[in-house]
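How a chain folds remains the central question behind the approach discussed here. This step matters because it turns folding into a mapping between discrete strings. The sequence in question and its structure tokens are set out directly beneath this paragraph.
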Amino acid sequence: MPDLNTLLTRCRQGDDLAWEALVRLYQARVFGVAMQFMRDREEARDAAQEIFIRLYKGLDRLDEGQSFLPWMLRVARNSCIDRLRRSKVRSPEFAIPVEDAPEIPSTDPSPEQETMMDARQDLLYRALGQLNESDRELIMLKDIQEMKVDEISELLSIPTGTIKSRTFRIRIELAKVVRQLDPAYGA
């Protein structure tokens, strides 16, 4: 696989195969961001498609020296926020809680491993759902999307020291919420 800069250059030149490779490379991250905001699998899938459309249209606006991942996550975040704002204007026809949504099957882990991972993920999403929006977003960017502190600082306009101290505090709070939801977890 070519390096990211080569891939981006080829995408800007209209190379469909390069775009497909870029989408495959980042589709899980984009879906993860969409899922955190939309909290519904179908909405997250639709949002992810919308995000990739915005990314494709905006590739020419990405500066040569600018890091792709923070830019992509900013576009994803803003797209989800816009989508949520639009959805508040019109009422949804139906809403399915995240825990009732069907899981996307995976071919890699065994059924037992998948069940355990699903239970952990469900527990994590339920715990994250009990945090306030800014804390949930910070944990999502730092721990789930694995962004660097300075990238988060630039994205959210928050000092790096504040990000470090808040993520430490939020992790402790998240652990307490997890234990409240499932007292057997971590025992």
